[in-house]
């Protein structure tokens, strides 16, 4: 029997996010829980690129029936805006050294995937249905600025850096991965809000969400 894929759901009347509890970054939204589950399954092939890069066994062709919903909770304005924004009880599970390393490897692979996609992207991207959407340099800048905010959230002080300052970006990421690779009891990092599992998920999700956006909007 195939082991079920554990998922959590964050919902509001207008949107739901479904997140794979053990796979940082694999989270998709929909207008309903059912649509979000279908989208999560559809994106498994794209997430498999990240899992393969991290050398982790992953089922790239799941169906909705392979998902086991282990937690539901109400979302917030962040959910409505388009961000899976609330840690779950599952995010508070402890991580031993092996599991912490696995989570950090997947975050690192998500960053590498974003860097690869961003480096190959044209500056001008296809506009959205209403003519909107940032060009690739703006998306790259947004991801780097957000990572600096995420670093602060997990207890790392980052000095302001230029978006093209690769040594500064690499140093920031290395410090963040060091935090994620440490075994934890499930408590919020740095006495703030995010336990390690949620931090890994949020960081990886943001990088992948924008990598996939760039791919989808490239002519």
- Structural class, by secondary structure, is alpha+beta
Summed up, the helix count is: 7
Helices and strands, in order, run as EEEHHEHHHHH
Kindly estimate the percentage of residues that lie in beta strands according to DSSP.
Answer: 5-15%
Uncertain segments are none
Mean pLDDT equals 94
For the CA atoms, what is the radius of gyration? 17 Å
Q: Got a strand count?
A: 4
Largest sheet: 4 strands, mixed
User: Which outline best applies?
Assistant: globular
Lateral strand order in the biggest sheet: 3-2-1-4
Tell me the helix content.
40-55%
Termini separation: 42 Å
Task: Please explain how this structure is put together.
- By secondary structure, the protein is α+β, with helices and mostly antiparallel strands.
- The chain has helices at residues 33-42, 44-53, 77-81, 97-120, 136-153, 166-181, 196-217; strands at residues 5-11, 16-20, 27-30, 67-74.
- It starts with a strand and ends with a helix.
Question: What key phrases describe this protein's structure?
Answer:
219 residues; alpha+beta; 4-stranded mixed β-sheet; 4 strands; 48% helix
Summarize the helices and strands and which ones pair or pack:
Layout: E1 5-11, E2 16-20, E3 27-30, H1 33-42, H2 44-53, E4 67-74, H3 77-81, H4 97-120, H5 136-153, H6 166-181, H7 196-217
Parallel strand pairs: 1-4
Antiparallel strand pairs: 1-2, 2-3
Helix pairs in contact: 2-4, 4-6, 4-7, 5-6, 5-7
């Amino acid at each position: 029997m195939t082991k079920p894929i554990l998922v959590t759901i964050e919902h509001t009347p207008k949107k739901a996010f479904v997140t794979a509890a053990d796979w940082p970054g694999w989270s998709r939204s929909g207008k309903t829980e059912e649509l979000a589950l279908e989208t999560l399954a559809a994106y498994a092939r794209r997430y498999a690129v990240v899992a393969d890069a991290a050398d982790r066994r992953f089922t790239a062709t799941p169906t909705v029936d392979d998902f086991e919903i282990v937690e539901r909770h109400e979302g917030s304005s962040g959910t409505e805006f388009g961000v899976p924004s609330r840690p779950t009880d599952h995010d508070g599970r402890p991580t031993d050294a092996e599991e912490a390393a696995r989570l950090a490897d997947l975050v690192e692979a998500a960053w590498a995937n974003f860097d690869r996609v961003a480096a190959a992207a044209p500056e001008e991207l296809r506009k959205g249905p209403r003519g909107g959407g940032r060009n690739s340099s703006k998306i790259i800048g947004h991801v780097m600025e957000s990572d600096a905010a995420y670093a602060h959230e997990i207890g790392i002080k980052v000095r302001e850096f230029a978006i093209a300052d690769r040594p500064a970006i690499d140093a920031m990421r290395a410090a963040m991965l060091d935090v994620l690779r440490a075994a934890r009891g499930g408590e919020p990092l740095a006495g703030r809000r995010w336990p390690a599992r949620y931090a890994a998920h949020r960081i990886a999700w943001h990088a992948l969400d924008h990598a996939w956006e760039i791919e989808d909007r490239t002519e």
